[in-house]
Write a structure and sequence with these properties.
The chain has 4 helices and 14 strands. With 247 residues, the chain is an alpha+beta fold.
Length: 247
Amino acid sequence: MKVLKWIIIILLSLGLIGYFAYLIVDEDLPTGEEGPKAEELANRMLEAVNDSAWHAIAVVEWNFTGQRHLVWDKVNHRAKVSWDNYDVFIKLGTKEGVAFAKEKKIEREEVSNKLLDEAYGIWANDSFWLNPITKIKDNGTIRKYVPQTDENKEGLLVTYQTGGVTPGDSYLWVVDKKTALAEYVKMWVQIIPIGGMKFTWDDWNTTPEGAKIATSHESVMTINISELNTWPSLNMYPNLKEFEVLN
């Protein structure tokens, strides 16, 4: 009984420590101001990452945290999403597609549909991490200027009212005032219970087309973008025939 008593005391203590840590770390969503100042900063941020060059890319390929590999045909809005032993080809507009396990097509509809849903969720998450700044003026977004205590930094709070997998998420981008490049982002999102989780925006990579993409993000976990390749036209992508399974 004494052992059980001490186990209960330890568990309660850990719970209290976790609760107080949550109270200390958890941040309220900041307030900001909509209007010309927010829009001017948003435009400078898009210019800093060369948004026009990003839209000139036809196909982009990348590896997300060493666990998932994606190819995104931006022209036809379709993707190949690979993880574990699965390769899923999906039409992103309709979420229709074809799933393979160990290179064998999955015929069972309920299994295929489940994998298509999972593939879409992976694409939505991983493509957002790939280049989210290009989405700060998407339809359904609200932008607010948030002053920073550091006079060399500015903040833009972006809330997504629609779209994606979890509408309602908010992101505070803190950028260098001179370059307008993001230094870090704080998140208020449904999948993270603590508000204001901070991720750095480091290791900027410039694609051959001129788009700037940050490939390293540090927080309580590390998120890396690797094996990044881009093609300015569909015909230049060497594995285009793979997508014929969607015809």
